[in-house]
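QA checklist item 7 of 12: single-chain prediction sanity check.
[x] sequence parsed
[x] length recorded as 206
[x] structure emitted
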Amino acid sequence: MVDLPQRSALNFFPDQINYPELKRASEGCRGCDLYKFATQTVFGEGPPGADLLFVGEQPGDEEDIEGSPFVGPARRLFNKALADASIDRDRAYVTNVVKHFKWIPKGKRRLHQKPRASEVEACLPWFAAELEIIKPRILVCLGATAAQALLGRDFRVTQARGIWLDSPMAEKLLATVHPSSILRSRDRETMYAEFVADLRVVAKEL
């Protein structure tokens, strides 16, 4: 008996692997069930050939509605931190390891829900293709889900944040917290300062 290929984003890849074709193909992805509850696919955005690539977990509520990564309060905080670290936001490519918003209802609100490992795995081919096309010199993982998806489930951002890590994915790789976690923190000022400090490590290499 022949095993059928595992359901994943690969089943929806275009014939030509380039940014416009990938983004267009991702809009029809049915590699996992998250598409059933999301408004749309949220693909990565940024200049082709960017030296710096940021990857987070998944789109949030506003990203799901607008169709762009890192919008709303998290984007404003992210942009401010980049400016404080002397990093030009327009020169960075920004994406997520999962392209659909996973949520649970709470009254009229849609609350973020962490994607399962199988959902991350199903979606990872899109990110792998983005990485191959952009070929960033520096890769920054934002948050535990993104870091563990790329570095292994045992990786802990709290233990290895802000330091350069060995990886075949880029010349330099670093992990730090996700901007949204700062917004949820009771000690935003301290977390924000630590986040900017991590980004300054990146800025020195640009």
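[x] summary fact logged: Residues 9-203 form a domain with the Uracil-DNA Glycosylase, subunit E fold (CATH 3.40.470.10).
[ ] second reviewer sign-off
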